[in-house]
Write a structure and sequence with these properties.
Layout lengths: L2 E4 L3 E7 L2 E8 L1 H9 L6 E8 L4 H9 L3 E8 L5 E7 L6 E7 L19 E4 L4 H10 L5 E5 L2 H6 L1 H8 L4 E5 H8 L4 H11 L3 E5 L5 E5 L2 E5 L13 H16 L4 H18 L13 H11 L1
Parallel strand pairs: 1-4, 1-8, 2-6, 4-5, 8-9, 9-10, 10-11
Antiparallel strand pairs: 2-3, 6-7, 11-12, 12-13
Helix pairs in contact: 1-8, 3-5, 6-7, 8-9, 9-10
The protein binds adenosine monophosphate (AMP).
């Protein structure tokens, strides 16, 4: 089934205790698309890059068969830039810089042929852009949204508005608490359900993820990775694995949603092994299935 992805396509500067890189491919939509491309061959990417976006990165997305008809190039500005620093506790990071650049005046237009998209990933980006994309999709089967503190604090009203049209929210524990002003995650989940999403996933970094759905809570551990180099993109990769599996199987039963959470965790476990999206460049289905079975 088709999977439409909107989110940031970015340059990232990353510092972890194990290394540093000034400028590497990043962005929520990049991670989601690369990851889901291992599950479905109909990934449609909506976003914008600036005049400085390297052909090498464009070619990388193309090499994974990601449809780039909705990826605009704005020659008048620079690509979105984000800089972050991690400490030994890799669950926490400091954002050092966020430059929206070409996203500031981005007006997403979905190609006509994409309006029938069945699965929609509203990756982390300004909530009003997420809404603009969603409005153009005719009758999606499942809309999944991610966001972060930057938007919870910076665009709270637009975020609440977008949430009304969302079926599943995927956030980390601190974001769930901040969004609801509620320290207890069970109560936070109840409050989020009242904002719109019927299903909720709360990610807890190396401690796994909780799926709240149909009045039940499913708790999945994270895959125990020995050498974590860089957690950047792990959340987006989780969403790519989750939606990749759901769009591939086109099955939204409770059991299959739980499997999707495990595929999300599996893909995130690959992502953190190398810098940026490096590890997502050359995976294969057998390796992914192997880790899924090990996980089971
Ligand atoms: P994650 O580690 O999964 O939370 O996502 C990391 C990615 O999010 C990086 O590649 C960044 O480029 C991107 N990112 C960081 N801040 C923002 C933001 N405010 N809006 C959209 N994307 C962002």
């Amino acid at each position: 089934m088709s999977l439409l992805v909107i989110g940031s396509v970015a340059y990232d500067g990353i510092e972890t205790p194990f290394g540093k890189t000034e400028r590497i491919l990043g962005g929520s939509a990049t991670y989601i698309s690369l990851t889901s491309s291992y599950f479905t061959d109909d990934v449609r990417l909506v976003g914008v890059v600036g005049h400085d976006f390297a052909k090498e990165y464009h070619d990388l997305l193309k090499s994974r068969d990601i449809d780039l008809e909705g990826l605009q190039k704005d020659e008048s500005g620079k690509t979105f830039f984000w800089k972050g620093r991690y400490h030994y506790d890799l669950n926490n990071r400091d954002t050092l810089d966020t430059q929206l650049n070409v996203f500031e005046k981005f007006d997403p237009v979905i190609p006509d042929a994409w309006k029938n998209s069945k699965y929609v990933a509203l990756g982390n980006i300004e909530p009003s852009l997420q809404s603009k994309v969603l409005e153009q999709v005719e009758s999606p089967q499942l809309v999944v949204m991610d966001t972060m503190n930057f938007w919870i604090e910076g665009a709270p009203d637009a975020l609440r508005e977008t949430l009304k049209g969302v079926d599943m929210l995927v956030v980390n524990d601190s974001e769930a608490r901040e969004l609801t002003d509620e320290p207890n995650l069970i109560r936070a989940a109840e409050k989020i359900a009242q904002m719109g999403p019927e299903h909720l996933i709360i990610k807890k970094g190396e401690h796994g993820a909780l799926l709240f759905s149909g009045g039940e809570i499913f708790s999945a551990p994270a895959y125990p990775v020995l050498d974590i180099f860089d957690p950047t993109g792990a959340g987006d990769t989780f969403m790519g694995g989750l939606l990749g599996w759901l769009s591939y199987t086109d099955d939204l039963t409770p059991l299959n949603m739980r499997r999707a959470v495990i595929f999300g965790s599996v893909m995130a476990s690959f992502c953190v092994e190398q810098f940026g999206p490096e590890r997502l460049k050359n995976l294969d289905v057998a390796t992914i299935r192997g880790r899924y079975n090990e996980f089971k």
